[in-house]
Design goal:
310 residues; alpha/beta; TIM Barrel; eight-stranded parallel β-barrel; two-stranded antiparallel ribbon; 10 helices; binds ligand PBG
């Protein structure tokens, strides 16, 4: 009767990994229950999510090395894997919000989110590539583009690119407060996208900082973001609360691959109850102030919530 916080399938977004081919499901070792899916399987999984009340999917492509180059040109290919996946999803499960990731790393032969020039990430050289990538995704039918690259000025560059191409209705979910985190390890295994050299600390945030989050929020709001994300989630619940309080925009939290892997690993050892811990972790993120939660456990959680409510 006096419960303050709710968790429902409508609050969840399911991240999915897409690969080339047909009828393929390649399990990801460090993310039990997750797989790289060919487009046909991706559509099935997305349909299942929608039928359980999940409102959105976030797509990440796993590309063959032969398609990667320093500028991630394949990201702009209208017939590229991700663009084909988006078109098929919007054709077959139109009610689902399709969110695409904007960053070069799955396409970059250097494994970085921006362009590497003379051993450094060149922020401003990266911006037009990100804008062109977002336009290619919008043209394929993406409802929201989600820049996760952390270059400065990318929300403005993407907004301008989308508007000029006529995609004024496509929203921008900015990975606004994204930390240089070790919890992304399993994701990088899933996409084979780990940096080939160096790290991401020159563009992602220092885990020690929270005032810096206010600067990121102010910039992204001014540049035209429609939703802000904090990532990772559970270790940064204080940051979610802080962003919730300083911004009127909807806030998303990304319960990342490492957070999911920890629950799965402990559960496989019989040390934790996965179902209960997953729901508790997600409810905690809602209590911290997240409107929306990206989680690899979205299907599991949606099923559990359904069962609990009937
Ligand atoms: C990269 C990107 C990453 C994730 C989402 N987009 C990894 C990174 O920044 O290296 C991580 C998601 C996860 O760990 O679940 N643009």
């Amino acid at each position: 009767m006096v419960r303050e916080t709710t968790l429902a399938p409508q609050h969840l977004v399911l991240p999915l990994f897409v690969q080339a081919g047909r009828a393929l499901e390649t399990p990801i070792g460090s993310m039990p229950g997750c797989a790289r899916l060919s487009v046909d399987r991706l559509v099935e999984r997305a349909r299942e999510a929608a039928s359980l009340g999940v409102r959105g999917v976030a797509l990440f492509p796993a590309l063959d090395d032969s398609l990667k180059d320093p500028r991630g040109r394949e990201a702009q290919n209208p017939e590229g894997l991700l663009q084909r996946a988006v078109r098929e999803l919007k054709r077959q499960v139109p009610e689902l919000c399709v969110i695409t990731d904007v960053a070069l790393d799955p396409y970059s032969s250097d494994g970085h989110d921006g362009v590497l020039i003379d051993g450094r990430i060149d922020n401003d050289e990266t911006l037009p590539l990100l804008a062109a990538m977002a336009v290619a995704q919008a043209r394929a039918g993406a409802d929201m583009v989600a820049p996760s690259d952390m270059m400065d000025g990318r929300v403005a560059a993407i907004r301008k690119g989308l508007d000029e191409a006529g995609y004024t209705q496509v929203g921008i979910l900015s990975y606004c407060v994204k930390y240089a985190s070790a919890f992304y390890g399993p994701f990088r295994e899933a996409l084979d996208s780990a940096p080939r050299g160096g790290d991401k600390k020159t563009y992602q945030m220092d885990p020690a900082n929270v005032r810096e989050a206010a600067r990121e929020v102010a910039l992204d709001e001014a540049e035209g973001a429609d939703m802000l994300m904090v990532k990772p989630a559970t270790v940064y619940a204080d940051v979610i609360r802080y962003v919730r309080e300083i911004s009127k925009l909807p806030v998303a939290a990304y319960h990342v691959s490492g957070e999911y892997a920890m629950l799965k690993a402990a559960a496989q050892n019989g040390w934790l109850d996965y179902d209960a811990c997953l729901l508790e972790a997600l409810l905690g993120l809602r209590r911290a102030g997240a409107d929306v939660i990206f989680t690899y456990g979205a299907l599991d959680a949606a099923r559990l919530l359904r069962r609990a409510s009937t």
